[in-house]
C-alpha cells in the first residue's frame, strides 16, 4: 500500500479573478475548495486512478471536519489524528492564463503529544513492502529533523520512504536516508545553496544530494518535465509544454505517478511525467485521471542534454 503523511494539511480555497492588481479590491468570478496539503494530494491522485492509498493527517477545528468531509466525498481513505488547533486554509488567486498567486497559512501549533500521536498512527499502519510518502511543510511544534525520524520508523518496518518538502524540513530529512526525494528547481537550489540554470546543473546538484543521503532524486522541472538522478545514471522525461490551467499540485501528481509505478527507474519516471502533465490540465488543486493519451505523449531519454537551459529559468532572464 502507499501511505501518505501530511503533517500540515490544508483546505485549498481557489478564487478566480480576472486580473490581479496589488492593493486593489477584487471580485471573484468563480471559487472552489479542495482537500489538500501535498501528501493529501498524492493520496487523492492515487485514489482517483484506482491505486490503494491511505492518508495520515492531523485534523482539528471546524476546518478539520470540513477537510474530512471533502475527503469522504472523493472516496479517499484516511487515518485522522485529532489535534486541538484548526486545519489551515491556503488561498490561491488564479488568473485566466492559469497563473496562481498563493498564500499558504502557517497552520496549527502541534503539541508534543500530538506529534507523537501522528508518528504513532503511521507506525501502526505501515507494513513491509509499503511505500510511505511524507510531504509538505512542517507545522509549528514539529522539529526540522521530524522527517528523518519518520524515515527510521518506516525503514524499520521494511517499507520505503519518499520525501517531498522544502527548506530546513527537506535538509533535516536527508539524515533519514529517504529512498527518493522530489524537489522542484527552487527547492533543489535551496538544498544545495547553488543556482541551477541548465539540465547539467540539475544533474550535479541532485548528485550532491545523493551524497547527503537521498537514495534517488526526482526533480520536477515544470514545462521541461522531470529528471531522475540515481547512483546508476540520470534520465529525463518530458511530454511537451502545455498551456496550464493550474500547476498547483502538479508535483504531487508527479510523485504519485512515480510511486504508483514502483518508485524507481526510468519507466517510473515516464509514468510520473504522464501524471504531472495530466495534472496541469486541471483547475486549482483538482486531481487528474491518467489516460494512455498522457502516457503516449511522454518522451524518455537516458542522455539528458546537459547544456540545455531550463525553460522556466530562461523565461526569467532579463531581455
Ligand atoms: N507548463 C507545463 N507543461 C507541461 N507539463 C508541466 C507544466 N508544468 C508542470 N508540468 C508537469 O508537472 C510536473 C510538476 O510540475 P512542477 O515542476 O511545477 O512541480 P512543483 O513545483 O513541485 O509543483 P507543486 O509544488 O505545486 O505540486 C512537471 O514535472 C511536469 O511533468
Ligand atoms: O505549505 P506546504 O505544505 O509546503 O504546501 C502546501 C500546498 O501549497 O502544497 C500543495 C501543492 O503541492 C497545495 O495543495 C497546498 O496548498
From TrEMBL:
The reaction(s) this protein catalyses:
beta-D-fructose 1-phosphate + ATP = beta-D-fructose 1,6-bisphosphate + ADP + H(+)
UniProt keyword Manganese, yes or no: no
Keyword annotations for this protein? ATP-binding, Kinase, Nucleotide-binding, Transferase
Domain spans labelled Carbohydrate kinase PfkB: 11-288
Entry's EC annotation: 2.7.1.56
Tell me the superkingdom of the source. Answer: Bacteria
MF terms (GO), sorted A to Z: 1-phosphofructokinase activity
For whether the record's keyword set contains Kinase, the answer is yes
Q: What does this protein do?
A: Catalyzes the ATP-dependent phosphorylation of fructose-l-phosphate to fructose-l,6-bisphosphate.
* Family designation: Belongs to the carbohydrate kinase PfkB family.
User: What name does this protein carry?
Assistant: 1-phosphofructokinase
Native species: Jatrophihabitans lederbergiae
Amino acid at each position: 500500500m502507499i501511505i501518505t503523511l501530511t503533517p500540515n494539511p490544508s483546505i485549498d480555497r481557489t478564487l478566480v479573478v480576472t486580473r490581479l492588481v496589488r492593493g486593489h479590491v477584487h471580485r471573484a468570478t468563480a471559487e472552489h475548495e479542495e482537500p489538500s496539503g501535498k501528501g493529501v494530494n498524492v493520496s487523492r491522485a492515487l485514489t482517483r486512478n484506482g491505486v490503494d492509498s491511505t492518508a495520515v493527517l492531523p485534523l482539528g477545528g471546524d476546518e478539520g471536519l470540513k477537510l474530512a468531509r471533502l475527503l469522504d466525498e472523493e472516496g479517499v481513505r484516511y487515518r485522522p489524528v485529532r489535534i486541538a488547533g484548526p486545519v489551515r486554509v491556503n488561498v490561491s488567486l488564479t488568473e485566466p492564463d492559469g497563473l496562481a498567486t498563493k498564500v499558504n497559512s502557517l497552520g496549527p501549533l502541534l503539541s508534543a503529544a500530538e506529534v507523537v500521536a501522528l508518528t504513532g498512527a503511521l507506525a501502526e499502519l505501515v507494513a513491509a513492502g509499503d511505500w510511505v510518502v511524507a510531504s509538505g511543510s512542517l507545522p509549528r511544534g514539529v522539529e526540522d529533523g521530524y522527517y528523518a525520524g519518520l524515515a527510521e520508523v518506516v525503514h524499520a518496518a521494511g517499507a520505503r520512504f519518499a520525501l517531498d518538502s522544502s527548506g530546513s524540513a527537506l535538509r533535516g530529512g536527508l539524515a533519514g536516508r529517504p529512498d527518493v526525494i522530489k524537489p522542484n528547481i527552487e527547492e533543489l537550489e535551496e538544498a544545495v545553496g547553488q543556482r541551477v540554470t541548465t539540465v547539467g546543473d540539475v544533474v550535479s546538484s541532485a548528485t550532491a544530494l545523493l551524497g547527503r543521503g537521498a537514495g534517488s532524486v526526482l526533480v520536477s522541472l515544470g514545462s521541461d518535465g522531470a529528471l531522475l538522478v540515481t547512483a546508476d545514471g540520470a534520465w529525463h522525461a518530458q511530454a511537451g509544454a502545455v498551456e496550464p490551467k493550474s500547476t498547483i499540485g502538479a508535483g504531487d501528481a508527479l510523485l504519485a505517478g512515480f510511486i504508483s509505478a514502483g518508485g524507481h527507474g526510468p519507466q517510473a519516471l515516464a509514468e510520473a511525467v504522464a501524471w504531472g502533465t495530466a495534472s496541469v490540465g486541471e483547475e486549482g488543486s483538482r486531481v487528474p485521471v491518467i489516460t494512455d493519451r498522457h502516457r503516449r505523449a511522454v518522451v524518455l531519454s537516458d542522455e539528458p542534454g546537459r547544456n540545455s537551459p531550463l525553460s522556466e529559468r530562461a523565461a526569467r532572464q532579463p531581455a
